[in-house]
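Project standup — Tuesday

K.O.: blocked on the structure for the chain from last sprint. Re-posting the sequence here as requested.
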Amino acid sequence: MTVTTQPDYRCTPSPLHAILLAGTVPLFLGALLSDIAYYNSFQIQWTNFAAWLIAGGLLFAGLALLFALANLIRADRKAGRPVMYLVLLLVTWVLGLVNAFEHAKDAWAVMPSGLVLSVIVSVLAVITAWLGLSNLRSGGAR
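H.V.: unblocked you, prediction finished:
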């Protein structure tokens, strides 16, 4: 009697994809720290720093999103963690864009919604990077 099992295909992101994905975390985290500094000091320059860091995070996340979409299109099985990773990355990018629009306001009008959005986007970026940089499986039920 022979037993045949489906192989577990592990797919790690390419080096460029990994750099772009990992780069989103410090950029969005830096924006969060800038928002916290602005909340505590009222120095308007911290909002400018946050806006630029969010723009960089959006650029990196957008390019990583393109890589994730291309990987999903090429995948044999389009379900499970790769789809969850793509959706989570898309949600991170969309909320980051809303955060960028929020940071386009003048001075204190950014607070507290900009700070709350920065917290949410930073947490999502960390979760997405953790999920994306771990081994994605396209086979099996894990």
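K.O.: great, moving the ticket to review. The beta strands are 10-11, 136-137. The chain has one domain: 17-137.
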